Structure to design on (106 residues):
């Protein structure tokens, strides 16, 4: 009788291990699909940013430029010239207070 009980216990443990492996495998597949979708989205938006014929500039919460696409050359700038500079350097004095009011709302 002990041999039968031991065998049943072992079968139950093996079943639990297999069940756990199946669950983990399912989570890995789901994560992999989401990660692949994320990578495709990243490539899509990176391409839109880099290939955009219009100048696209990204700045941080302090208003300093952190990135610019190649189209900024249409305005006589390179990305390196803009990085870390505040966007306020490029505003007309009469527009500064109005623009900063909008920026503060972001």
């Amino acid at each position: 009788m002990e041999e039968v009980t031991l065998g049943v216990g072992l079968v139950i443990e093996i079943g639990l291990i297999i069940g756990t492996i199946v669950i983990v495998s399912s989570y890995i597949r789901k994560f992999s699909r989401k990660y692949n979708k994320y990578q495709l989205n990243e490539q899509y938006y990176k391409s839109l940013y880099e290939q955009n014929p219009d100048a696209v500039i990204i700045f941080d919460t302090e208003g300093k430029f952190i990135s610019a696409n190649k189209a900024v050359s249409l305005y006589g700038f390179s990305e390196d010239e803009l990085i870390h500079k505040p966007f306020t350097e490029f505003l007309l004095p009469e527009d500064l207070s109005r623009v900063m009011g909008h920026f503060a709302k972001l």
